[in-house]
Design goal:
This protein is mostly helical and 446 residues long. It has a domain of 95 residues. The chain is 15% helix and 4% strand. The chain has a two-stranded antiparallel sheet with strand order 1-2. The protein is elongated, with a radius of gyration of 27 Å. The relative contact order is 0.08.
């Protein structure tokens, strides 16, 4: 009899426990229904997508009463709401997303909106987000370029333009489909945008023109540290480099990047070098579908004059001594004391210029659309890169009284002047190169 009583007691305890668990689940579910904006917590509510004032807000859900930033704007747990599926009605995808996570068969642009769930909001025409918004270029947001010279754009347009950040290549890189898996945070069905952005914690540091710049916020996360933001605090700024970082001008006033301050402050700019070299470094082999070859490998810390290698030949004694660097850079007293952030020259998403070169640099227009073979500012062919390089390096035009290359040693005139036009600048000057015609020059040439 005692055995039967013990079994009965166990059954009752299990039943009571199951009932409590069921009631708890019901309470949580009801709270989620009644207070959907409270379903998320922690860093998400501090993120751009999780902001209760401007976060995710899919227009087709407005009639169901979902608050701004509610998870359901991106994730449809049962692929239908109120008995039907909100726009776009194509069935929930991976991670219960309301649309296709990423089209892994699309190896090149042009992209269409359904190629990535991100394009359903980060686009102007056809956006599902309310209110609509723009993702401006780096040149416009931080570089001081006008809306006329750098027209308003969005992420969809940027990647559909001349973008060397091929989404298919990024997807294969972060998921290890190139061979050795470098990063461990990304399953095979990851969205390539997540390589640089953690959508649940990414913040809006600037919403130009209406939202002022906030250096304590960041939209980026390193691929190797996907769970944390990068560049939002001490130890993750360009001010970390003892070599010194000088911000370019962003207007003729002059004021400086990234926020138009009257002084250059490297503590305001994320350490884009550490961020970008998480992928672009001396060890990662990255095939480019856009270029049809592997990207150049390089060691920014020791093998680049724009990096940690101390540059030389920044001035000449004409006389008087003359700087070969344009303001705000000083070639007379600070030669070899500068490092350069990747975003000083490159756009992250896309650019009308080759190799993601910014359209506006150091308060001047840049036009490089023929891989360097086009005309430079002096009208000479093969000097197109002078539109970019000349924003910081002076005396690059044929009519200048000084020529920076005439101080080079060990090579004759025909090295650069083989007859007719100049050689293309990138024959010698590109990331990771220290050779001219196969002969080592003895120091980096970029």
């Amino acid at each position: 009899m005692k055995l039967k009583k013990d079994n009965r007691d166990k059954i009752i305890r299990r039943s009571n426990f199951s009932s409590l668990c069921f009631l708890l689940c019901v309470v949580i579910f009801l709270l989620w229904i009644i207070y959907p904006d409270k379903a998320s917590s922690g860093p998400y509510l501090d993120s751009a997508h999780g902001s209760t004032s401007y976060g995710v807000n899919r227009t087709s859900l407005s009639s169901f009463g979902y608050s701004i930033a509610n998870c359901t704007h991106c994730h449809e747990e049962h692929a239908s709401i109120g008995g039907s599926q909100p726009v776009p009605a194509d069935g929930a995808d991976k991670f219960t997303l309301f649309a296709n996570n990423f089209n892994t068969t699309k190896s090149a642009n042009p992209y269409v909106q359904s190629d990535s769930v991100c394009f359903y909001c980060h686009i102007v025409t056809g956006t599902l987000q309310s209110p609509t918004f723009n993702n401006y270029s780096y040149s416009y947001t931080f570089g001081g370029c006008s809306a006329g010279d750098c027209p308003t754009s969005n992420t969809f347009e940027a990647f559909n333009g001349l973008s060397y950040h091929n989404l298919y290549d990024i997807w294969r890189l972060i998921t290890g489909l190139y061979g050795t898996k470098t990063f461990t945070n990304f399953p095979a069905d990851s969205n390539p945008c997540s390589g640089c952005h953690n959508i649940h914690i990414a913040q809006r540091s600037c919403g130009k023109p209406s939202v002022s710049f906030d250096p304590t916020k960041s939209a980026i996360s390193k691929p190797s540290d996907h769970g944390n933001l990068w560049g939002d605090g001490a130890g993750e700024k360009m001010s970390n480099y003892t070599g010194g970082y000088q911000a370019p001008y962003n207007s003729a006033t002059p004021t400086y990047e990234p926020d138009g301050s009257a002084i250059s402050d490297p503590s305001k700019l994320p350490d884009y070098v550490t961020f970008c070299t998480d992928c672009h470094n001396a060890t990662n082999t990255i095939p480019s579908s856009t270029l049809g070859r592997n990207l150049y490998t390089f060691n920014w810390a020791t093998g680049e004059m724009h990096g940690g290698y101390a540059a030389t030949y920044c001035s000449v004694n004409v006389p008087p001594p003359t700087s070969l660097l344009a303001p705000p850079y000083d070639g007379l007293t600070k030669c070899g004391q500068y490092v350069t952030a990747c975003t000083d020259c490159h756009e992250p998403h896309g650019s009308p210029n080759n190799f993601l070169a910014r359209k506006w640099v150091n308060n001047g227009m840049v036009t490089v659309t023929n891989n360097g073979t086009g005309n430079g500012p002096d009208g000479r062919a093969n000097k197109e890169w002078a539109w970019l390089c000349g924003k910081c390096h002076t005396y690059l035009d044929s009519g200048d009284a000084i020529n920076t290359h005439h101080g080079a040693t060990g090579f004759g005139c025909t090295t650069c002047h083989p007859g007719g036009n100049y050689r293309n600048c990138t024959d010698c000057h590109f990331h990771g190169n220290s050779k001219i015609n196969g002969v080592d020059y003895g120091k980096p040439l970029f």
